[in-house]
Write a structure and sequence with these properties.
Distance between the termini: 22 Å
Number of strands: 11
Number of domains: 1
Number of helices: 4
Strand order of the largest sheet: 3-4-5-11
Largest sheet: 4 strands, antiparallel
Helix content: 10-25%
Length: 201
């Protein structure tokens, strides 16, 4: 039988010994996109997932050592922006060139000293009980086009992935094309969030 590693936790002058796994699971539950409870039945792709605040779009492979995660598309009248710019053309933002990790891109853009309207909108969005929405990365948008194109207006949508100081990547929801376009142009933006279940850890 495997012996669980115990860790000391100090609380109110007392020292408690708890299993390492219990501490890790409770810490993960405090992070955006994580949950310590059972998510219940995962819906089919394209179906509403009310417990996660939107429509289920499928599984995304984790990058940079992060676990795989479920991608959820925001729904409702405030779930998208029309005719919004990427912003700060001519300026490159460090940490906003991830191909897969839209959350990291969005945080980098929203917290930079430069103005990024599309990313800032997603970053501060409070919708369906969640506050961890973000602008999807280039590869996340590829998955959205492949799995749930019916959820999107048939126009170009911004990704959070910059391709240069002047351009950022877009996804076209007519034929699946992607391209780098000047950051000063105005296009649609749609918010997403992620959910990491215990089964993916």
């Amino acid at each position: 039988m495997k012996t669980q590693q115990l860790m000391e936790v100090k609380h109110g002058g007392a020292t408690i010994l708890l299993p390492h796994d219990t501490i890790v699971e409770n810490w993960l539950a405090t992070l955006p996109g994580h949950a310590n409870d059972n998510p219940g039945q995962i819906p089919a792709i394209g179906e509403e997932w009310p417990e996660q605040g939107g429509v289920y779009a499928g599984m995304v492979r984790g990058s940079n050592g992060l676990p795989d995660y479920h991608l959820i598309v925001a729904t409702g009248p405030t779930a998208q922006q029309k005719e919004v710019t990427y912003g700060s053309a001519g300026k490159s933002t460090a940490g906003a060139d991830h191909e897969w990790d839209g959350l990291a891109n969005t945080i980098a853009l929203a917290e930079s000293d430069n103005d990024h309207p599309a990313a800032h909108w997603a970053h501060i969005l409070r919708l369906n009980g969640f506050r961890d929405w973000y602008l999807p990365a280039r590869r996340e948008l590829s998955l959205l086009y492949a799995n749930v194109p019916e959820l999107f207006d048939k126009v170009w949508h911004w990704s959070s992935t910059q391709s240069s100081a002047h351009n950022a990547w877009l996804q076209y929801f007519v034929d699946g094309a992607q391209g780098g376009v000047h950051k000063s142009r105005a296009f649609h933006a749609r918010a997403v969030r992620r959910f990491i279940s215990h089964s993916t850890l």
